[in-house]
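[retry 2/3] Phosphoinositide phospholipase C: previous attempt timed out, resubmitting with same input.
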Amino acid sequence: SNPLHREVHQDMEQPLCHYFIASSHNTYLSGDQLLSQSRAEMYARVLQAGCRCVEVDCWDGPDGEPVVHHGYTLTSKIPFREVAETINKYAFIKNEFPVILSIENHCSIQQQKKIAQYLKEIFGDKLDLSSVSTGDPRQLPSPQDLKGKILVKV
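[retry 2/3] Phosphoinositide phospholipase C: success.
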């Protein structure tokens, strides 16, 4: 592949909604949607391949620990904490533009609180906690403004 194609050659100062964002669906799956293994390493792989939006399907797990897997299937489960740690490690190795966690939440309030705790603990200052009024998309920050930040979409 041509290394020049990895460079960004456009204005990155427009509101976030003006861009196509490379997204991953069922990011955690290593194979098919019914029987395959869920693996935290899949997040490392797609983030390094340039993906900027990853999906995290969260479910109540044992001992109060939320897990990530494809619900109502036989896919294996991985601890949410492990997924967050992997994302934190690999999010900005290839580029500094923001990473969006698309969280599909199926958790009880108790385990949602655990997810929030892990997000703050693991991502620290990288976690963008600023609130955005969704009424006017022109008010959204730009990819340039959000460099090095992790956004949460639920």
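[retry 2/3] Phosphoinositide phospholipase C: The CA atoms of residues 85 and 122 lie 6 Å apart.
[retry 2/3] clearing retry counter.
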